[in-house]
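Quick entry, no commentary yet.
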Amino acid sequence: MAKQPATELDRIVGQLRELSCAPTDFDKVTQLELLQQIANAAHGAMARVSVEFDDSQRADQALRQVPSRQRGRGVADQIALARRISPYQASRDLGMARALRDDLPGTGALLSAGRISERTAQAVHHETDHLARADRQQVDSELSPAITDATTAGAARAARAAAFAIDPDSATKRATKAAGERGVSFRAAKDGMARLGGYLPGIQGVAAHRALRKDAKAIIAFGDGSGRTLQQVMADLLVERLTGQPRACAVPVEVQLVMTEEQLFGETPDSPEPRDPDGPSWVDGYGPVPAAFARAAVAGVADALGPTPPEVDRAQAWLRRVFTDPCSGQLVDVDTNRRRFDGTVRRFIRLRDQFCRIPFCDALIEDHDHIARHSDGGATSIDNGMGICRRFNLVKEMPGWHTEVIHAAGPPGSHPHTVVITTATGKTYRSTSPPVPGARTKRPDLGVIDLYFTTRLAQAS
């Protein structure tokens, strides 16, 4: 009896896991060559399987009488869960996979044979995605024999040149399309920093950068730089102009910090047990930051090492106490009879879930949704609510999808909030709320309860 494809793949994974290194360096390099070829071919196989899965799911949705404009919704999300990547990355990969099958078959065949890398295939896809299908297929037939030995950048240049040659107007079309996709991006960086980027038409980008540079040079020339470098002044000007605040370190009210009382005020005589006052705090929408960074934000000073206790005491901030279960370290449950998640309940869910609760998504929370549908009798409560991105809020309403809260032993709040997500194919995935920064997880003395502060920072005057 022939082996099932999944069983055969499982056997291959086992063999790779137990692979021994070759005895000589020459053979080790040969192993690396072959392993890279296997990795390339695996990406080609994933592309083929993804497109076949997309086709079959769309056909199934048609049988379920899903409106045509909604068919395909949730497919990339299931691929993302299976591959342990974000839904947005899965959507991009699925688009490329379909292009490799329909528009770039030569490039797809090279990837499936392991002769080019996934990044090289992505470069060809990206540089030709504005062409009509027939033109794209012609570029592919001309290009594929020449890219097996090219670098990723070289393949991109070759694809771009071939696209320009076959359609001289493509540059204008692509520029017009790109201008319609302008936007702003944000992602957390290390050491308490973040990267804020603008995808702009080139002329606007040059104008914005030159304006920041010109004004920053003027500030330094007039002696108002306070020892800051040109790049530091430009960064501060960017924040001040976008937020309207007079100083970059005067954080607006929308930002919230979560920290223990020890992290904010230092160790106190009545602290239940010694804890690190410099452990990680949490910034809503960003993630963990050093406690010194959080104290600097509360005090409204630029130097993360600078806030003194009097500066923290004078800070323009509102403090809200948040209690956790003394045994589990989980946030305590609160209930409400309202239909919409708002006010305290909305803030509570954001603090508990931190980012979108869908496994591997990690997008910012856009919606606060009922796990058991409100129309089915689901309560508007913290236990029945979760923070998710807008994309999943639409996906979970597709036929066959189901979400459910499960409880371990004990009442809600005594264990991590856990949701089981069932996809249209019957696959199940668990999503457990992350731990509260600095929370104790062992049982303390009877009657002791953890105290945290969420800090809504005032606009500095």
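second:
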Amino acid sequence: MTVLYLEDFTPGQRFAGGTRIRIESERAKAFAAEFDPQPFHLDEGAASVSIFRGLAASGWHTAAVTMRLLVETEFQPAGGIVGAGFEELRWPTPVRPGDELRVEGEVLEVRPSKSRPEQGVVKMRTSTFNQWGEAVQVSVGNLIVQRRPS
């Protein structure tokens, strides 16, 4: 894959991944047990009477899967995918065991850094979808990207 510098990005540019990751029940429960041990992520019975009406993977599990999927797209910024923070992070639809997730990204804004001339910021919307095309995570984040060496 080609490494992209700040100058290679333009607003409206899109990146999609062909890779899909299937969410397995046991892996979702193991993630939740370690990082988000709430009953609706761990136990089918408790989940059935929760707001989710069934077992739901942790949003943080979805975020970790999204990162993995994003790394496998053509979105290959120089210096790696280095986050400077999120302006938005939503989980509009719960992720269920058996869901197959895929990711798409869109560049919203590109701006050189005023204080660090060797880098800039790419604002990007990253959307994660299940197998039915429903958005399960939407984020808008600012990423630090290196400028092309002179």
